[in-house]
């Protein structure tokens, strides 16, 4: 019997794997995809070029990301502008600003720099959101499955998520308003998944010997507290997730910070002593809206990546029991 050449056999094996992967993808439910995505974001090593579009402007970033024993190591380098570099090791983050020759040291607790607002399979869809599979598309040269997460009311944004069929990793995400307009898009132009990445990839591109190091307050400056402040008129599905007392930069007195969430959208409410008659009202920074209102001797500020009507509704409803 004539033996099949090895390269031909490999082609047949690869074809069989691709067919099997496609069949499994077609059989998966939206919740299966979200569960797969959650695992991929937490465990996948990758490097590539990301383009973020928001507010009519685009920025390209080179990203290198490794997870080892649950610890995130990451380097993000801006490809234009001021040459900003962000280097992360666990929760400690160094923001390198070459123009001002300074390094800002911060502490982050987000599991993902790029995808911190993605929904998970733990969300109870049906009450406040629906999730559906839309179609297959190609992103960054890879086959992807497009999922749509649609809110039921005007108090939260929708999501469009393109998941790599082979791994479940998010190759592209969009945050959309109630009219379907894109608020923010994060998209890989190119990506290498599960690549071997050497530790030297996380070294700074600059010599930092003459840089000024500035350390922001650590998370230990937050204290979990009981509070008698409550939001009396929350949008459906929102509930208090945590209550802390924090010392914010530029404030003499600690402020109470209540985090509200519906499982996807998050709104932070800050309650501070009123120091002047000038109340900020509504404002917007990037994709986040904020609203401030006076309440006796206090100022209530709600801020989050949600519509302006949401932060206004929550801030105005906060009262002391």
Largest sheet: 12 strands, mixed
Our estimate of the beta-strand percent is: over 45%
| Number of beta strands | 21
Helix content: 10-25%
List the helices and strands in order: HHEEEEEEEEEEEEEEEEEEEEHE
Distance between the termini: 86 Å
User: CATH top level of the largest domain?
Assistant: Mainly Beta
Secondary structure elements and their pairing?
Elements: H1 6-27, H2 30-43, E1 46-54, E2 57-68, E3 71-78, E4 85-89, E5 92-97, E6 102-107, E7 129-139, E8 142-151, E9 158-164, E10 170-176, E11 182-193, E12 212-215, E13 223-224, E14 229-231, E15 239-246, E16 255-261, E17 266-273, E18 282-285, E19 288-295, E20 298-304, H3 308-317, E21 318-320
Parallel strand pairs: 6-12
Antiparallel strand pairs: 1-2, 1-11, 2-3, 3-4, 4-5, 5-6, 7-8, 8-9, 9-10, 10-11, 13-15, 14-21, 15-16, 16-17, 17-20, 18-19, 19-20
Describe this structure in words.
This protein is mostly beta strands and 321 residues long. It has two domains: 28-213, Lipoprotein localisation LolA/LolB/LppX (outer membrane lipoprotein receptor (LolB), chain A, Clam), CATH 2.50.20.10; 219-320, Phosphorylase Kinase, domain 1. 14% of the residues lie in helices and 46% in strands. The protein is built from three helices and 21 strands. The protein has helices at 6-27, 30-43, 308-317; strands at residues 46-54, 57-68, 71-78, 85-89, 92-97, 102-107, 129-139, 142-151, 158-164, 170-176, 182-193, 212-215, 223-224, 229-231, 239-246, 255-261, 266-273, 282-285, 288-295, 298-304, 318-320. The chain has a twelve-stranded mixed sheet. It has a seven-stranded antiparallel sheet with strand order 13-15-16-17-20-19-18. The protein is globular. The N and C termini lie far apart (86 Å).
């Amino acid at each position: 019997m004539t033996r099949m050449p090895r390269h031909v056999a490999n082609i047949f094996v690869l074809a069989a794997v691709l067919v099997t992967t496609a069949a499994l993808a077609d059989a998966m439910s939206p919740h299966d995809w979200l569960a797969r995505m959650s695992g991929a974001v937490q465990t996948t090593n990758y490097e590539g070029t990301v383009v973020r579009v928001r507010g009519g402007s685009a920025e390209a970033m080179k990203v290198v990301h490794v997870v080892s024993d649950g610890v995130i190591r990451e380097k993000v380098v801006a490809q234009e502008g001021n040459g900003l570099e962000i280097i992360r090791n666990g929760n400690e983050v160094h923001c390198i600003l070459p123009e001002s020759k300074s390094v800002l040291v911060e502490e982050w607790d987000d599991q993902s720099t790029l995808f911190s607002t993605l929904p998970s399979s733990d969300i109870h869809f049906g009450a406040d959101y629906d999730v559906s599979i839309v179609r297959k598309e190609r992103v960054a040269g890879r086959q992807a499955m497009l999922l749509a997460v649609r809110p039921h009311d005007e108090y939260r944004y929708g999501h469009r998520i393109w998941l790599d069929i082979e791994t479940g990793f998010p190759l592209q995400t969009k945050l959309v308003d109630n009219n379907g307009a894109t608020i923010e898009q994060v998209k890989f132009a190119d990506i290498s998944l599960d690549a071997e990445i050497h530790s030297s990839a996380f070294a700074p591109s600059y010599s930092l010997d003459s840089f000024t190091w500035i350390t922001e307050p650590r998370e230990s400056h937050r204290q979990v507290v009981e509070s008698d402040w409550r939001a009396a008129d929350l949008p459906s599905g929102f509930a208090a997730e945590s209550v802390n007392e924090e010392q914010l930069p530029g404030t003499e007195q600690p402020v109470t910070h209540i985090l509200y969430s519906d499982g996807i959208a998050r709104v932070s409410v800050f309650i501070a002593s009123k120091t002047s008659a000038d109340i900020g009202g509504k404002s917007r920074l990037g994709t986040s809206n904020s609203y401030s209102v006076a309440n006796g001797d206090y100022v209530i500020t709600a801020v989050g990546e949600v519509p302006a009507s949401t932060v206004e509704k929550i801030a105005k409803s906060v009262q002391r029991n």
